[in-house]
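RECORD TYPE: inverse folding
INPUT: structure tokens
STRUCTURE:
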């Protein structure tokens, strides 16, 4: 993390999938380390499930990589949750992610897919995601699901999908374009309509518009394409229950993105649980909001992945 001008004393942070962060003073000349503190001392008493790197061939032959987490007991024919990363020009890493051990602790397998368009695998892999939102990027996720079912890891009748930001979009895409694949969906800080997304950007985000036009095209020119990959316009295809979380002060993915998909789904009688946080922006950084949100996530998945019947009445401003 830092070192003195004489290079005799370093501060070092160590982290892994089992450790959110431990801090040390390190003396390189003596090759000695002195422990300072844990970023979360309570976590040291636990032994999270391992995060295993995996790879598979997509249906067009492209190699896709990701990470598999299995609960410590009964790792076969179990309920699974696909946890889709945001960006999409980002990736999942072999690192500590607090939501993953929480889900594995509840008995779920967790799959994180670095679908085409993710970073870290070279420009060619990144560019293969151009104009593939809701198309081959979704296919990569579905191919991963097929592999887990074929290998008897996942119970095909108890597979869910969740994500934040672009991962939330990917969740809505699965809900609208592959309604038979997942039994329930959890999305947060979501985008549902690429037209309103573009129109919501403040002027100082013009560079992001330029990037999106390069990766997706201009919505004024490719209107039919943008409509075809916006889940809002295919809401009538949905079948599964949905949980949405949203910060009311989010300027990146505004409240309108969540409001309009909730309204469209409820008009067709689709069960939707909507958690709106009045004092939150783009992400649940407020600790109380984060705990409340994941309490809702925990309850939602327990209800539908355990095959218990009956939708929840959870719908309130927090």
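DESIGNED SEQUENCE:
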């Amino acid at each position: 993390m830092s070192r003195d001008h004489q290079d005799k004393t370093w501060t070092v942070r160590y982290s892994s999938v089992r450790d959110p962060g431990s801090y040390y003073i390190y003396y390189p000349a003596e090759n000695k380390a002195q422990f300072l503190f844990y970023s979360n001392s309570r976590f040291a008493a636990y032994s999270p499930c391992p995060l295993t790197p995996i790879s598979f061939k997509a249906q067009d032959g492209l190699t896709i990589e990701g990470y598999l987490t299995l609960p410590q007991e009964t790792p076969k024919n179990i309920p699974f949750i696909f946890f889709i990363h945001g960006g999409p020009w980002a990736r999942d890493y072999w690192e500590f992610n607090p939501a993953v051990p929480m889900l594995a602790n509840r008995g779920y397998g967790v799959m994180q897919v670095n679908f085409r368009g993710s970073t870290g695998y070279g420009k060619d892999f990144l560019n293969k995601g151009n104009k593939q939102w809701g198309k081959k990027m979704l296919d990569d996720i579905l191919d991963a699901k097929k592999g887990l079912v074929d290998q008897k890891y996942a119970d095909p009748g108890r597979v869910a999908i969740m994500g934040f930001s672009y991962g939330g979009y990917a969740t809505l895409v699965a809900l609208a374009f592959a309604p038979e694949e997942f039994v329930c969906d959890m999305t947060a800080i979501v985008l549902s309509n690429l037209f309103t997304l573009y129109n919501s950007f403040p002027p100082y985000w013009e560079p992001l518009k330029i990037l999106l036009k390069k990766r997706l095209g201009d919505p004024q020119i490719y209107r039919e394409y943008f409509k075809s990959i916006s889940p809002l316009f295919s809401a009538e295809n949905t079948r599964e229950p949905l949980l949405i979380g949203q910060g009311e002060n989010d300027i990146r993915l505004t409240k309108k993105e969540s409001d309009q998909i909730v309204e469209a789904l409820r008009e067709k009688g689709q069960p939707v649980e909507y958690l709106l946080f009045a004092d939150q922006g783009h992400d649940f950084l407020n600790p109380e909001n984060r705990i409340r949100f994941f309490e809702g996530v925990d309850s939602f998945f327990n209800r539908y992945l355990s095959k218990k019947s009956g939708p929840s009445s959870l719908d309130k401003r927090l």
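NOTES: Residues 287-305 form the longest helix (19 residues).
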